[in-house]
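One such shown below:
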Amino acid sequence: MDTMRERFAPVVTRLLDEDPGVAVVLAEIGRDGFAEAERRHPDRVVNVGIREQLLIGTGAGLALTGMRPVIHTFASFLVERPFEQVKLDLGHQDVGAVLVSAAASFDWPAGGYTHMAPGDVALLDTLDGWTVHVPGHPDEAETLLRHAIGAGEGKDDKVYVRLSVQSNERALAVDGQRFLTVREGRRGVVVAVGPMLDAVLAATEGLDVTVLYATTVRPFDAGALRRATEAAGTDVVLVEPYLAGTSTTAANDALADVPHRVLGLGVGRPELRRYGQIEEHVTAHGLDAPSLRKRISDFLDTRVNRPAAGPRLTPA
C-alpha cells in the first residue's frame, strides 16, 4: 500500500491537469513528485526554495488572483515556522489556500525535533475559520484532498490536510464533515482521530464503549459527539495523533449543558531527545494499543456518581 504522501502528488497532478485554477507552491521538499507537473504547467507549479515565509506569501498572492493554491512542506515548516504569514497573508487578507503537510508529529524521527510538529493543529486553533482534515488512510487522504482543493464555490476556504506515514489498515467512507460511528457501547465514548483508529479499536476490544472516527476535526462534529453520549454516557476519551488535549475544549463545549468528563490522549509535551523509530515514539507517548487500553480503562473505572443530568438543553 502506498503512503498518504505518495498519494498526494499524483492526485494533485491530476487536479492541475483538470482545473486551470489550481496551483502548487513548494519549498524544495516534495519537488520530485511534481517534476512532470512542473514541465506541463510551469506557471502553476512554483518552487520558492528553502524559504517557508515566502512559501505562504506566494500562495496567498496566488489566492488573491483567484487561484486555488496547494502549499506543501513538512508540518514544522508549513505551520510553525511561517505562522505569522499564515495568520496575516491568509487569515488577515481573508483568502483561502490548502496547506498539505508531511512528517506529522514524529514521522521522521531521524530528522530530530526540528522536523516534528505535534503542536500544529493546536497552533492553527488560535486562528479563525480553518478546516482541518486528518486522514487515517491513503484513500481517505485522496478523498479529503479533492474535497479541500475544490472547497467552497469561490474556492476561498482555508484548509489544512495533515498527512502521516502512520495509517489504518482499511479506509472508511469519509465525507470531509462528519464523525463516523465505528462501534457502539454504553459505557463511554472514545473518539479516534485519523491514524489512531486501529490502535483504538484494538485497545477497546471487549470494552462496552462507543468508538467515533474523526478525520475532519475542525469544525468539530459536536452533534455526533452529543448523539453518541446520549446512549453511551458522558465519559469521553479523545485519542489524537498530535498534542494531547488539542480537542478537549471542543468536546467540553459540545457537552457544556450536561455533567461530563473528558480525557485527552495524544503526544505529550516533554520532548523525547532520542531519535528512535516511529513505533518507539508511539509507545513512549502511550499511544500503542496496550497503553491506550490501560489509560482508557483506568479513566472509565474512576467514574464518580453524579445526580441524573435531567433533560438536555437544545444547542443554539
User: Anything to note?
Assistant: The domain at 4-162 is CATH 3.40.50.970 (Rossmann fold). The chain has twelve helices and twelve strands.
